[in-house]
Amino acid sequence: MPANRTFEVKALSRVEGEGALYVKLDGDRVERVELNIYEPPRFFEGFLRGRAVREVPDITARICGICPVAYQMSSCHALEKALGVEVGPEIRKLRRLLYCGEWIESHALHVYLLHAPDFLGYESGISMAADHREAVERGLRMKKIGNDLLEVLGGRAIHPINVTVGGFYRAPEAEDLRRLLPALEWGLQASWETLKLVAGFDFPDLEIDYDCVAVRHPSEYPLNEGRIASSRGAEIDMEDYERHFQERHVAHSTSLHSVRLPAAQPYLVGPLARLNLCREQLLPEARRAADAAKIDWPSRNNFHSIAARAVELVQAFAEAQAIVGDYRARLATSQVPWTPRAGEGCHATEAPRGLLYHRYRVGDDGLIAEAKIVPPTSQNQGRIEADLAAYVPRVVRLDDAEATRRCEQLIRNYDPCISCATHFLRANFDRSATAR
Question: Where do the domains of the chain lie?
């Protein structure tokens, strides 16, 4: 083995977006870990300025093809606060249903095609299908059910066009939704099969004292509404988000890194953080699923995030089935009327990958004067680097190929959407002679 070793992976597979990982080692000691995001900035916040309020949900949906609903929901809620708009319970329920559809399609995709291959020893979901065809087909069918929900409620499965400030342009017909009930019933059972599969994985041992952050609601599992809670005891109004969290530039990335103030420390958002903080708000069936996973919640091992996603699949299918079952007739009014005015509003919802914060200022002309968007992956990037710094000493004695595979698996715990964060994976392991 040479005195100096450089390991390079030009593109990390099974994540959304492109970037690089740089690890410098002095023997077994980690000197530096950098998650290099090198995609160019996309300037969504900039070109939202000067746009009409009604354009914002459609524009922000284009930030991500996997979780467009999250961007639409955060933008709608923030703008409704700025405009003094309050939606009724029927619209609120349909919004949760739409969000359930997104969680289903995103979680199913990640569990079966992106992350399960790591635990089962395959390089991709395609190669895994050769030996686990039934499981992969199950995942694809579950994803399609989520897409079907988005299509019925949002007008199409990718970048929905039926979402607007104040509600929906058009309410779904009852028969169109109820036609999905058999698929949702099948999906709920498939979610239990998913949990059974992932709960049996061999999870690497990596215990970390995470500062978990998520939206928390007193009676509902978090999607659209609540306050921002932390496992360190804080619970804040969404309007105070920027007093407690701050985005910072780092030299090695075109993505901002978020830290928790005042200590400027990384924190964890996403399925594991949500389940750790909000397990009591799960529907009864999903709570039974969490118990059946045989994991000691709250978990301090983010390799358990795949099991948290499986529990959330049970939650999303169960809630979607209940909402569709209660939807008897098309809403007479699917959109609350509003008048453009000056104002400012901010809001956070729970994207599949974690908390997504939006803030908007509307000018006197009724156009967007300022926009701020903080996606989950930029909030998790500092936490990913810290996880790698803790994990690399445990795999440094492995050969480069296996050490790399283990690091990639850790990164995929987060299901990072790098383009959202602007924005993966070339990895360099800079090993000194003492690392031999």
Answer: 44-379
Given this model, what pLDDT does residue 431 score?
62
Q: Is 251 exposed, middle or buried (0-12, 13-18, 19+ CB in 10 A)?
A: exposed
Residues whose CB is less than 8 angstroms from the CB of residue 279 and which lie 6 or more positions away in sequence, other chains included: 287, 290, 297, 298
Q: Residues 370-398: pLDDT tens digits?
A: 999 999 988 998 999 999 999 988 888 88
CB 341 within 8 A of CB 234: no
Q: How far apart are alpha carbons 216 and 225 in whole angstroms?
A: 8
Two tokens, residue 131: 């030996």
Distance between CA atoms of 340 and 369, rounded to whole angstroms? 13
Dihedral of the CA atoms 340, 160, 77, 315 (nearest 10)?
Answer: 160
Pick from 36, 101, 112, 94: which is nearest to 66 by CA?
A: 101
Task: Quote the CA–CA distance of 159 and 78 in Å, as a whole number.
Answer: 19
Residue type, 53: V
pLDDT in tens, 197-220: 999 999 999 999 999 999 999 999
Token reading at 409: 């698996």
| Peptide bond preceding 425 in cis form (omega within 30 of 0) | yes
Tell whether the torsion through CA atoms of 153, 47, 227 and 300 is positive or negative: positive
Strands 426-431, 20-26: pairing is parallel
* Sign for the pseudo-dihedral over CA of 220, 224, 225, 228: positive
With the C-alpha atoms ordered 284, 288, 290, 296, is the resulting torsion angle positive or negative? positive
- Could you give the 3-state DSSP secondary structure of residue 413? coil
For the domain bounded by 44-379, which CATH number is listed?
1.10.645.10
Extract the tokens encoding 197.
């599969």
